[in-house]
Amino acid sequence: MEEKVVIITPCFNENTTVISFLKNVESVIEKLPQRFEVVVVDDCSSDHTLSLLKEFKFSSTNANLTVLELKFNVGHQAAIYQGLLYSNSLSSDKFIIMDSDGEDDPEAIADLVKFKDFDIVNVARGRRKESFSFQASYYIYRFIFKVITGKILNFGNFCMIKKKVLKTSCYTGFIHFAAHLSKQKVSSTSIVYNRLKRIDGKSKMNLTSLVHHAFKSFVEYAEELLMVFLRIFMLIIVSFMGFIGIVLYKKFFTDEAILGWASTMTVSLFTTALICIGFFVMGILLLNMISQKSQSKNEIFNKLANNEVLPSDSLKL
Q1: What is the pLDDT of residues 247-282, one digit of tens each?
Q2: Which residues, other chains included, contact 179 with Cβ-Cβ below 8 Å and sequence gap of 6+?
Q3: Distances (CA, A) of 14 to 17, 18, 62, 86, 126
Q4: Closest C-alpha to 182, from 197, 161, 167
Q5: CA 196 to CA 104: how far, in whole Å?
Q6: What's the pLDDT tens digit per position in 88-105?
Q7: Rounded Cα gap, residues 56 and 50, in angstroms
Q8: Residue 68 CB: number of other CB atoms within 10 A?
Q9: Cβ atoms < 10 Å from Cβ of 222
């Protein structure tokens, strides 16, 4: 029986970029023996992206295009989630997730589909084409992520997952897909491909979006982050009590003057402890938000077929 592979790609206001991307993908998959279903999730684009997708068709016989039109804009990660929800009903055990801006190299698809014994195959990023300041910030973020989580996050959304991983992702939900995958207790490996230049030459990633990206990845590890602040808090409390003991001892049991730095250090430790408590409370709230979000599995898309919108009763709000 011919193997079927599903490719899931979100897009938003990509215009002709997504068409160029699909053509690049087709130039790779038309040479492969598998059948491919390419699921494009349009995140409620406000330009001509959707109309261009309606008009596009693959010329190769082993490729089929499915377009999902979201009811409203939900963001990149949530659009991926909608693609996973739809694909959960498809008869395939290999699902490739990649971005549609051209930075993920379609040539990697040929290598990904060769893997059979791993539940997750990530496409680790080789050389990047961003500015020096962005690359420096990116490596700092990766270092902090490793310190907090113990994991190396050298990959993005580009990966291939098995059906059981897809089902897990649909059940639990996620805020940051790559960080979510790094937490899965399944067999995994990676291949390395350099990031390509965005097709239209204008990268949407900047320092501000990197900060948002980093914050979401830490939210996926909210429990681990919570434990880090709890350990810091306990260490500060022990140090604070120690300094208080020294100050009280010198004040009531010796004739020595209390050093100025001791009082300053005590106040500083107390202030830092309060800050840690604040982060701890914020972490609890984040965990609560994640728990509530994971319970929301609503499908908010219409499936386009033959250039027409199929009626959908899947909007459950």
Answers
A1: 777 777 777 766 566 567 666 767 776 776 666 666
A2: 153, 216, 217, 218, 220, 221
A3: 5, 6, 25, 21, 24
A4: 161
A5: 6
A6: 999 999 999 999 999 999
A7: 10
A8: 25
A9: 20
Report whether 228 contacts 282 (CB < 8 A). Answer: no
| Total residue count of the chain as it appears in this document | 317
pLDDT the model gives residue 144: 83
Asked: is 4-220 a CATH 3.30.420.40 domain? The reply is no
**CA distances (Å), origin 128, targets 104, 114, 192:** 11, 25, 12
> How is residue 184 written in tokens?
């899965």
Q: How far apart are CA 156 and CA 105, in angstroms?
A: 12
Amino acid, single-letter form, for residue 301: F
Residues ≥6 apart with Cβ < 8 Å to 281? none
Q: Please, is 14 exposed, middle or buried when counting C-beta atoms within 10 Å of its C-beta (0-12, 13-18, 19+)?
A: buried
Contact 34, 113 (CB under 8 A): yes
> Alpha-carbon distance 201 to 57, whole Å?
25
pTM of structure: 0.80
Q: How far is CA 36 from CA 96, 188, 307, in A?
A: 10, 22, 19
Find all residues with CB under 8 Å of 196, minimum gap 6, and list them. Answer: 102, 103, 104, 105, 129
Angle at CA of residue 312, ends 93 and 8, nearest 5°: 30
Buried b (16+ CB within 10 A) or exposed e, 225-256: bbebbeebbeebeeebeebeeebeeeeeeeee
pLDDT digits (tens, 9 = 90+) for 46-63: 999 999 999 999 999 999
Nearest to 96 by CA among 48, 156, 49, 159: 159
Nearest to 89 by CA among 188, 198, 8: 8
Q: What is the mean pLDDT of the chain?
A: 84
Q: What are phi and psi of 94, to 5 degrees?
A: -130, 120
Q: How do beta strands 63-70 and 301-305 pair? A: antiparallel
- DSSP letters, 135-165, are HHHHHHHHHHHHHHHS----EEEEEEE-HHH
